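If your schedule permits, I should be very grateful for your opinion on a structural question. Please examine both parts with care and let me know of anything in them that strikes you as inconsistent. The record follows directly beneath this note:
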Amino acid sequence: MSKQNEVKNGTSSYSEKELTEPMETTSPSVDLWSLGQRKAEISDPEEEDSSDSESEDDDDSSEEEEKNSDSEPEWDKDSFDGREYHSDEKELSDKEADLKWRRYERQLIETKGFFVEPENIPPCLYSGIAPLTNLEGPSVDGLTTREFCTDLATACLDKLNQQQGSNVKFEDVLWVNFRGGSRPVYFITFVAKEFESPDAPLLEYQAKVLHTFLRETYPILCRPSLNPTWYI
């Protein structure tokens, strides 16, 4: 796939576009206060939200810095590190919605944001991390979503190779999770080869990248998948 953007010093020339479709609306029987509590518990600390930053106490100065819309995320720091899933004692009145929320929370935390099954997307998810289900659909600058995410993942992989002196080669995007807001983040799972050879195995990798509405791209991390789920 051709790159139509030149990435320099962590930035690219892409314009931003909303890539996710609205989720289903609230069921009248869903407890909105409980949903708000759950959203706060599983929100990505890298998300910049002025109302959240005012209402929550955060002793971690580095996370506070990431919440600043003008700050760059720290390379190779995963905001999900150290987080564990704990089943909420409070149940929603809507049993189906409650089950979806529990499955959604567990999958996000256990995969560090990189995978959630579309059928587990709960109601009322107007923000948060969700999969991009149509990678072949149009994105920006005449690119498909797959091509757009290929460039984002390649920027992360280039930084990994530069930092480690490696030569990992990008092959193809497998799936993508997306978190909107004022600091949109892409969680891209892809396959790569760690050396050039026709016999080199395809390995599953993860790239996490911040792409702002100011057309700035900041690689956050790139690594082999912690729990590979894709098999040849």
